[in-house]
Design goal:
The protein contains 13 helices and six strands. By secondary structure, the chain is an alpha/beta fold.
Length: 300
């Protein structure tokens, strides 16, 4: 049989969460039963041939339900239904699609390019006369990137202190600031902090880097002041964290005579996306156009 549309998976996945902890794996059987899928349907591969369509649809359904806050993550890969999710199931719609999810502010924030039409087959994004097909592709890619950023954040906050510190070092070195010499590391008794010095490729500049594992907490003014002190005579510094910087810390960084770059969790994930750190390319799409010069030459 034809695999149902992606949106047809969302309601069955939410129903699965009503009966206990939800995972992408344990949702397969109950969702398949409700959608009348056969084993051959469950094992059907996606066009790329790298994943099963049903498993991929369930993963996307979980992502959309999280964005609408109808389910919440309890730990990596596990979810439970929220109070709002239970309200939906108390009087369930025939289908939970993009138009239905649009009522939730958190979902709207996650999909700025979606244009709801209020129909069951509303798609994301909706193509209209005001944009070219290339614009539509750009919007789709932007949507995928937003979901990817959320996935990266979820992976990062699950890292141990040592894991995050290794990631931070990998990121700054990938940005071509050079590589650090072990002798340049600063000893610290804190397992969640690492300070080291990077050299630019020509050895002309030294960059003091402090990586701090905060797990979404705020960096305090005292912690930032300690970093400035540790820089000594160095003029350039990078403070990277899986937390965030409050307004007063950002203002202090701007006032410093030194050049300080602040990289919080949001900035970190955007850099990872830009430089393909912790990512792999699943598919490349070629956009072609007619070579008019070729045909002009044929007509000579």
């Amino acid at each position: 049989m034809t695999i149902p549309r992606f949106v047809d998976f969302i309601l069955p996945v939410l129903k699965t969460a009503e009966h206990g902890v939800l995972t992408a794996r344990n949702a397969v059987d109950p969702v398949a039963k409700e959608l009348l899928l056969k084993p051959a349907d469950i094992n059907q591969l996606s066009p790329s041939g790298k994943s099963r369509r049903v498993a991929k649809s369930i993963s996307w359904a979980i992502s959309y339900l999280r964005q609408a806050r109808l389910i919440r993550r309890t730990k990596r890969g596990e979810y439970v239904i929220t109070e709002e999710g239970s309200k939906v199931l108390a009087s369930p719609p025939s289908v939970i699609d993009n138009a239905f999810l649009w009522q939730y502010e958190s979902f709207r924030e996650s999909h700025p390019h979606y244009k709801p039409k209020g129909t069951a087959d509303a798609k994301l994004p909706v193509h209209n006369d005001h944009e070219t097909p290339e614009d539509t592709i750009t919007h789709v890619v932007a949507h995928l990137d937003l979901d990817l950023l959320e996935e990266l954040k979820a992976e990062i906050i699950e890292l141990s202190a040592e894991g995050f510190l290794r990631l931070a070092q990998e990121v700054v070195e990938t940005l071509r600031y050079g590589s650090n010499d072990p002798a340049d590391g600063f000893d610290t008794e804190l397992i969640n902090v690492r300070t080291f010095v990077l050299r630019d490729p020509l050895g002309l500049e030294s960059i003091c880097v402090r990586a701090v594992h905060k797990t979404m907490d705020l960096v305090s003014k005292a912690e930032f002041a300690d970093f400035i002190s540790s820089m000594g005579n160095m003029r350039n510094g990078i403070y990277i964290t899986d937390g965030s910087f409050p307004k007063e810390v950002r203002q202090q960084a701007e006032k410093e005579a030194k050049n300080i770059s602040l990289i919080d969790l949001d900035h970190l994930t955007s850099l990872m996306l830009r430089y393909n750190i912790g990512l792999r390319i699943e598919r490349m799409v070629e956009i072609k156009s007619v070579d008019k010069h070729f045909f002009d030459e044929l007509g000579l």
